[in-house]
Amino acid sequence: MSRSQCTASSLRLRRERWPVLLLVTAAMAFAAPSAFAVRGGNGNGNGGSGGSPGPSTQKVTSVKATGTVINSLTGAGIANAIVTYTGATGTYTETTDSNGGYFFKSIPADVYSVKATTKPDNPYFDDATVSNVNLQKGGPAKVVNLALTPLTNVVVSPAVSGDAVPDATLTLSGSCMPLDGSSVQSETWTQEEDAEGMPIGVPATVTGSSVQLGDLSAYKAALVEALKSPPITKDQLPPELQDRFPALEGDVSDFAHGIQDRWQVAGINPFAEEKAAIVPLTYTCTTSSGSYSASVDVTTTLPWAVSTGLRTVPMNVGVLLYGKCGLGTDPNAPEACTQEQWNWTGVDPNGDPVQDLADADTQTPWFTPDQQGEYLFTETISGTTLDVYAGKWRGAIDPDLTLASVEGDPIPGFFCRFV
Hints:
Elements: H1 3-31, E1 62-71, E2 82-87, E3 90-95, E4 101-108, E5 110-117, E6 128-135, E7 142-143, E8 146-148, E9 154-161, E10 169-178, E11 184-191, E12 205-207, E13 210-212, H2 216-228, H3 245-249, H4 254-257, E14 264-265, H5 270-277, E15 278-287, E16 290-299, E17 312-314, E18 319-322, E19 344-347, E20 366-367, E21 373-379, E22 384-391, E23 393-397, H6 399-406, E24 414-418
Parallel strand pairs: 1-7, 1-8, 17-22
Antiparallel strand pairs: 1-4, 2-3, 2-5, 5-6, 9-10, 10-13, 11-15, 12-13, 14-18, 15-16, 18-20, 19-21, 21-22, 23-24
Helix pairs in contact: 2-5
């Protein structure tokens, strides 16, 4: 057979086999289409969990969804609410416009759980959820409305600005935001009172949108009163011991007064300092649906710091002195003193008179040391002297050394001293 004849026979054989090859290839593609597909994303806009992004053989149907988020009490739209659709295909989020409306122009057809929330920017509404929202192809956009319930009818937010020191005038401002559709009628400020109608804390003068705090002597009196308070109250006693409290109230001992009756630098505990410094104020907003109030504490900065009562004190911090008065024995007047008049004098480390000795004619004078060394005070009526040593604070607590000292190591653990 010649070469041309062989070539012709070969071409005829190949043409006869083409239909068979096409049938085999088609059968393989039908039986295993995934073998010929390139995996793509998961449909939620975040990319697939495996493989490289690319076209998918599974076609996803997109639908539209819209709605409004409203206040359940007023029906008004809520701006900037966050609406979240969560389904098998993914999670999709939109924010409402100024009228409370939202719109998803293209999300996969799916069965969704729809949630609306205003938190954290607007924490005054409860969340709302609608389950089993079935979004399928065809027809207009699915409308899903949600109503959020206010956590309170009216939101009141008080604020105080200014430097809170004795005798200062501070600015009062309040925000009154009705969520129930009511209208604001008035706004007022008052100082909180106890059960007997007396101001809690140092009395302040509230005038319109300002408050004038009490003077320094009033704060000192409040501090001393707090220091003298019994260490426990009747309510703090165990029930089986409460019947003994009348005896404690008539007790003239140091225990009943919370401070020892002796010549001393007064120890100031943080609870007494806080009680003396805080002035609680109440802001009340009255609307057509009622009155709503909120409180704010004005914490006044006082010149006296928390102190152990040691006569070694830091410079530039107020020091409160306390004179022994000799407590009386009258159970009806347990705080009566045998010494009723006072006259304190003092000299600084240079031997000069202490110029800033305040309230020298009271049981509790005070001063602020500004020099290193010994200050000597004399209460001239009783003839008693009291020395106080002022220095610069140079110290810190080392936790390792402290632990070692507790375990018996001779190395001191409390590294602090006055020099």
